[in-house]
Design a protein that fits this description.
This protein is of the alpha/beta class and 1113 residues long. The chain has 41 helices and 25 strands. β4 and β5 form a beta hairpin.
Length: 1113
């Protein structure tokens, strides 16, 4: 079975839009030329010409006359079709590009690659090294543009650069000439008026976004139905089979649904008779009435062994084999009705639906990709159901389900990630093995045959002599044998997403070799390609039995063909604990060499890929002694994925590649040190892609993903560099990942990947980091004081009060003022100058006499239960108060022995840093536990901490938290490198910082005054983000924002409009002037700090070229 292709766009969306589309009059005029091309192709005459003889005229007739694109010779200054676009790939140039062009500018929208009518497009042909589609993708990357058209004149395809090569829209020229509806669709999608409009965006972009949204919605809708059916089947089977253990009922429930899904899929793809499931439900024998379940048992037997009378071929494979537990169940008719409901969806190939004529009803298609998502989610939900079997109610809400998915470590891996992982590992191995085989054959060849083997992918078939042709045949036959020996493993295979991707990529490699052999010797190699890949190339292991069952189902659905037995997968897809091999430690212990002897007879696996489970170390406690004894990467705090790294490298053969996506935390964390040592000693890291806190990859998981590609060492010399690409989440292009990594990545010295925390930086950046660190002295030494933390009260509700409460307490007892202090929260600490929110803290430190402050005691007594410390011997369940400690109920929880430091001049900063916000505090503010401070009023130090240079450094030095915030851990801040300035630099810095503090205070006051005025005069209680950044707004923007917040029910009068303009002139314009001065001072300070650290102009340029998100200005 060839790899299934699918359309780019949702067929229903396209049909709806095409229905309202009117064909331009010019199309009718172009019909004769379209018919001419259809006749030329149908007659076979076009096949006798070379591409260069026909393509220019085809572009003129079809793209020019029919679709409406114009060349530079047309009327007007602009044009939309550019021929022979000079963007080189493999010494070739794109045949054309579509876009908006003038003599002075070029906006590329579509790259166009044309080939001859015999070209298959998706694979290399006529001795070319790459396929037409590969060429076109590379043109699009280099132009750059997002859309791709590839045409053989016989067939024209539309691709999107961010989608895989199996996803495209296609149009056959002969059908376009005879099918008016198809022609209308062709012109609608590719017509110049919508692809390259004079103004606005290409309509294909919005159509793709809408299609993707519709796909997600359909997936969610179908899964909701599927999950509901599973729940109903489970509940009814439990009721009807009270003596059967619930775990067995759950197993049978899933197996029944797997069988029904397979039958539903097959009946819509002509692998079973139409409506097979419905017929099984509706069949009724009035002379021999029996439960409907008996019909389904008969259906399952028929699918297993075949039934000629019902025209059902035998599929076998294990899914439908006799299952005593399932066959003896009592299955109510109501359950069988649910089987029928599940089969009513349309499981036809999406391509078939997209190309259906207007007379056919378009229904939502549940294609193999949607089924893949369903299968992935099913594994986690089945685990949840199994855990819930002991509870009275097996239903949980969605919030609980998400929490459990996170705990259990199962997250759906997006297709663009699985594709990249497999490309890197399998592609890397294939590239090396191909070249090794080529070199071997070239060394053995003689005379002209050696010349042909210089590049077996590139040859002129007609020019080959007989020795050359035979040499190439021997090479491609040998290469096919090499492919047959490749062993690919996912050691935590789940529903099989990685194995499906590996199947597709392997299938394409086999097809290329088959195509080459067909060209060279006139016939293809005949063998069952699907069976070869499934039984000899792909391997998967998973701890979860349902995962294995679903993974096998995924692969069977992928490869099912009419009349062909399903491939047995019991050997290659196995249930087991990939990490533990001792059955005394785990009941599903897995000994790799015993289970897969044929693999280790060859030295191990060639490729290991996957997304190892995210299971926290707390759940590994029973197994830690065994892990410590058997894994060099063991650490008591290491999560499960750490051991999957070591396992993956262990089972590889030398020269094999592993590509995982996991969290990046181990690269710097203490628990990752043994694993880093293992990588240093036992692996060659080939590449690292660090995504930071990219929520686009695992939306429901709070993880920091990265992709590592590593090789098991061989006898060759260790590579000196590895490829690195760090992609901040704001810059991740999920539709263009490979290109982004290729363009933005850089080489790094592998010596940086040692036992110490990994610095994932190019060599130039690492050099600059080292210079900054060697130039400065530790902050603790520079300031003469280590950073101190704010106050942990243990009950903020009691100790933190507003001004009204403070005033009431002080009024009742003026002495209370001695222990009530103004305090700052983390969000109050701004850049240069904090902004107090009139909040206060009751600071009842250790040893205080609470009776001396009766009003405070009265206030705190209201919270007595929440304030009581937990007794050390408490055994009565959840304690309503604070944690255990030696403090009294009215005292602050932490001792804060350094409390007097709060009242000194200091530099305050936030515990969670989204921006560099360090502020001078000379007013004696106390701080909560979300603040830190340094008892120091050094304005130069304040400037360094707020500088772009230090933010650049700290992005690479401080730990990253959720949403890419930085965490200024105390010991790291103590060691922060602070350069000693010259007297001149210090003086200039201090002058600028004083002015910045004054400006910031003035701007804050203006902000408060204007917002208060808007609250009183215009009833704006909650200012928008734009109004909270007044200096960004000119007069019109300011008024527009006020109007938006007031709404249509409160229109502005002429007087209120005038008042707003006057206020802008009076208050905001001066603040905007100050903002301009601030920017100038910030730049001046940045230059001075760079000078203090001795940066050269080239190093400053590097600093900004590699700037992290949210640089100070």
């Amino acid at each position: 079975m060839a790899v299934e292709t699918k359309p780019l766009f949702n067929p229903e969306l396209v049909r709806q839009q095409v229905h309202h589309f009117m064909l331009p009059d010019s199309v009718e005029a172009a019909r004769p030329r379209l018919q001419h091309w259809a006749d030329l192709i149908a007659s076979g005459k076009a096949d006798t010409f070379k591409e260069t003889a026909l393509l220019p005229e085809f572009l003129t007739d079809i793209f020019g006359q029919l679709l409406g694109y114009t060349g530079p010779a047309g009327p007007g200054d602009s044009f939309t079709l550019l021929r022979e676009t000079h963007v080189e790939v493999d010494r070739q140039f794109a045949d054309a590009a579509l876009g908006r062009f003038t003599s002075e500018s070029k906006k590329f929208i579509v790259a166009v690659e044309g080939k001859g009518t015999r070209d298959p497009l998706e694979r290399p042909f006529a001795g070319r090294r790459m396929s037409a589609v590969d060429q076109a993708y590379r043109y699009a990357i280099n132009l750059p543009c997002d859309w791709i058209i590839v045409t053989s004149m016989r067939e024209t395809r539309l691709y999107h650069k961010g989608s895989n090569q199996q996803t495209y829209e296609r149009f056959e020229t002969t059908r376009l000439a005879s099918d008016a509806a198809l022609l209308k669709r062709f012109v609608f999608l590719l017509g110049a008026a919508r692809v390259v409009p004079g103004t606005g965006a290409c309509h294909l972009d919005a159509l793709l976004r809408s299609s993707e949204s519709a796909g997600r919605e359909l997936t969610n809708q179908f899964y909701a139905l599927y999950a509901d059916i599973r729940q109903q089947v489970f509940v009814q089977l439990r009721s009807a089979n009270a003596t059967v253990p619930p775990e067995e009922i759950l197993r049978c429930t899933q197996k029944l649904l797997d069988r029904i899904l397979f039958c539903s899929f097959c009946e819509d793809r002509v692998l079973l008779p139409p409506n097979t499931v419905r017929c099984a439900f509706e069949h009724n024998d009035p002379y021999h009435p029996r439960p409907i379940w008996e019909n389904f048992r008969g259906l399952f037997r028929s699918v297993d062994v075949g039934n000629a009378g019902l025209k059902i071929p035998a599929y076998n494979g294990g899914l439908f084999a006799h299952d005593a537990g399932l066959d003896t169940l009592a299955v109510p008719d109501e359950v069988c009705a649910l089987f029928r409901d599940l089969a009513e969806y349309d499981y036809r190939p999406a391509r078939e639906m997209a190309e259906a004529d207007d007379t056919q009803e378009i229904r939502p298609v549940i294609d193999v990709d949607i089924l893949g998502h369903i299968f992935e989610q099913s594994i986690t939900d089945l685990e949840r159901l199994r855990q819930d079997l002991t509870s009275a109610d097996s239903a949980v809400d969605e919030k609980q389900a998400k929490t459990r998915r996170k705990k259990e470590g199962a997250f759906y891996t997006p297709a663009f990630i699985t594709r990249y992982n497999v490309e890197q590992a399998l592609g890397g191995v294939v590239k090396f093995r191909f070249e090794a085989l080529r070199q071997k054959h070239a060394d053995e060849a003689v005379a002209t045959a050696r010349k042909a083997l210089a590049d077996p992918n590139a040859y002129d078939l007609a020019a080959l002599n007989e020795p050359q042709r035979k040499a190439l045949i021997r090479f491609w036959e040998a290469w096919q044998e090499v492919l047959k020996t490749l062993r690919i493993l996912d050691p935590a295979c789940g529903s099989g997403a990685y194995l499906i991707e590996a199947f597709d990529q392997l299938h394409a490699l086999y097809e290329i070799s088959n195509a080459r052999l067909e060209e060279l010797r006139g016939h293809r190699t005949l063998f069952d390609l699907d069976r070869q890949i499934l039984q000899h190339n792909l391997y998967g292991v998973d701890l979860n039995a349902e995962a294995i069952q679903i993974c096998q189902l995924s692969l069977w659905i992928k490869t099912a063909a009419h009349g062909k037995l399903l491939t047995a997968l019991d050997h290659s897809i196995r249930e087991g604990n990939s990490i533990i091999s001792d059955p005394a430690v785990h009941p599903k212990a897995f000994d790799w060499q015993i289970v897969f002897p044929e693999v280790f007879a060859q030295g191990g696996f060639d490729v290991v890929v996957g997304n190892p489970p995210y299971v926290r170390q707390e759940l590994l406690t029973p197994f830690k002694p065994w892990l410590e004894a058997n894994y060099a990467s063991y650490h008591g705090m290491a999560d499960l994925y750490v051991y999957f790294y070591e396992l993956g490298l262990r089972v590889l053969k030398p020269g094999g590649l592993m590509s995982y996506i996991v969290t990046n935390k181990w690269m710097k964390a203490g628990y990752g040190e043994p694993l880093r040592r293992f990588f240093r000693d036992q692996a060659w890291v080939r590449s690292v892609v660090d995504f930071g806190h990219a929520k686009q990859i695992f939306e429901e998981a709070d993880v920091f993903p990265c992709i590592i590609v590593a090789e098991k060492p061989t006898s060759e010399d260790k590579p000196k560099t590895a490829r690195l690409c760090t992609i901040p989440r704001e810059q991740l292009r999920i539709d263009d990942l490979s290109v982004q990594i290729e363009k933005e990545g850089a080489e790094m010295d592998v010596e940086q990947l040692g036992v110490e925390s990994w610095q994932l930086e190019p060599q130039a950046v690492s050099g600059l980091i080292q210079k900054i660190r060697s130039t400065g002295k530790p902050l603790k030494s520079f300031a003469g004081m280590k950073p101190l933390r704010g106050i942990v009260t243990g009950c903020n509700e009691a100790f933190l009060i507003d001004s009204k409460t403070r005033n009431d307490i002080v009024k009742d007892d003026p002495k209370s003022n001695e222990i009530i202090h103004p305090y700052l929260r983390g969000q109050d600490v701004n850049r240069w100058q904090s902004e107090w929110a009139e909040t206060w803290i009751i600071f009842t430190r250790r040893g205080i006499d609470i009776d001396a402050y009766p009003a405070v005691k009265t206030h705190l007594s209201k919270f007595r239960e929440q304030l009581e410390p937990k007794p050390n011997d408490w055994t009565g369940g959840e304690w309503p108060g604070r944690k255990s400690g030696t403090y009294k109920w009215f005292e602050i929880q932490d001792s804060i022995d350094y409390w007097r430091e709060f009242e000194k001049p200091k530099i305050s900063y936030q515990e969670i840093q989204f921006h560099p916000c360090y502020a001078l505090d000379t007013k004696g503010f106390y701080g909560n536990n979300k603040t830190f401070f340094i008892t120091c009023d050094d304005l130069y130090l304040l400037a360094v901490l707020n500088s772009p240079l230090m933010w650049w450094h700290n992005w690479r030095y401080l730990p990253h938290m959720k949403d890419e915030a930085l965490s200024p851990l105390g010991f790291l801040m103590e060691a922060l490198p602070i350069a000693e300035p010259t007297a001149a630099i210090r003086a200039a810095v201090e002058t600028a910082v004083r002015r910045l503090i004054d400006i910031t205070a003035s701007q804050q006051q203006i902000q408060r005054t204007v917002l208060d005025w808007l609250r009183m005069e215009y009833a704006i209680e909650k200012p928008s983000q734009k109004l909270q950044a007044l200096t960004d707004l000119d007069s019109d923007a300011f008024i527009t924002e006020v109007k938006k917040l007031r709404g249509k029910s409160q229109p502005l009068t002429a007087a209120s409009l005038a008042a707003l303009r006057a206020e802008h002139t009076h208050s905001i314009d001066p603040a905007r002037t100050l903002a301009a001065e601030t920017l100038h001072l910030e730049r001046t300070l940045s230059d001075l700090i760079n000078q203090a650290y001795g940066l050269t102009p080239e190093e400053v340029q590097l600093l900004w070229a590699t700037a992290p998100p949210r640089m100070p200005f």
